[in-house]
Amino acid sequence: MHKNTVHQLILEALRADLAMTARAVHSAYEAATHEESAPENKYDTLGLEASYLAAGQARRMEEIRQALQVCQNLVVRAYDAQRGIEIGALLCLEDAQERVQWLFLAPDAAGLKLDLHGQSITTITPRSPLGQSLLGKFAGDEVEILVGGTRQQFTVIEAL
């Protein structure tokens, strides 16, 4: 697996999300400012609700734009066996039930689900408990996190 390809998939997904959100912002703005959204009485809140939706969509669009910019600025480097896992690493983890998952430690854009040749890859960031605990680890290391009062243990199978 090539992490440069994964990085490009992240950028493509963010660009697609940004375009979709921009269309949603435009639609919400149109709905909020349309003449039919003008209140007919003091209980008519259609226009107000549409403006709240437009504002929320605009905030989401800005979050995606920032994530895209941060991810575009990421220089994907080869794994350094001396430094261990750092931002830009592509990882294979195994949990206590021997389930395997591939993760990309990104500077932003947590939770993206990517598909590379049938292999699912999820982006995480160092802001997550798992991402934080993985920084500086090496293949063969174990990490343990507490999620919702439950301890989860993972073994780093591979780090690229």
What report would you give on this structure?
Pfam families: GreA_GreB. Residues 97-158 form the Transcription elongation factor GreA/GreB C-terminal domain. Keywords: Elongation factor, Protein biosynthesis. GO terms for molecular function: DNA binding; translation elongation factor activity. This is GreA/GreB family elongation factor. The protein is of the alpha+beta class and 160 residues long. It has two domains: 3-72; 90-159, Roll (Chitinase A, domain 3), CATH 3.10.50.30. The chain contains three helices and six strands. Strands 3-4-2-1-6-5 form a six-stranded mixed beta sheet. Helix 1 (3-33) packs antiparallel against helix 2 (46-72). The model has no long low-confidence stretch (mean pLDDT 90).
Q: Can you give the helix content as a percent range?
A: 40-55%
H/E element sequence:
HHEEEEHEE
Mean pLDDT rating: 90
User: What is the count of DSSP helices, taking H or I runs of 4+ residues?
Assistant: 3
> For the terminal residues, how far apart are their CA atoms?
9 Å
Q: Beta-sheet strand percentage?
A: 15-25%
Largest sheet: 6 strands, mixed
Q: Describe the global form.
A: elongated
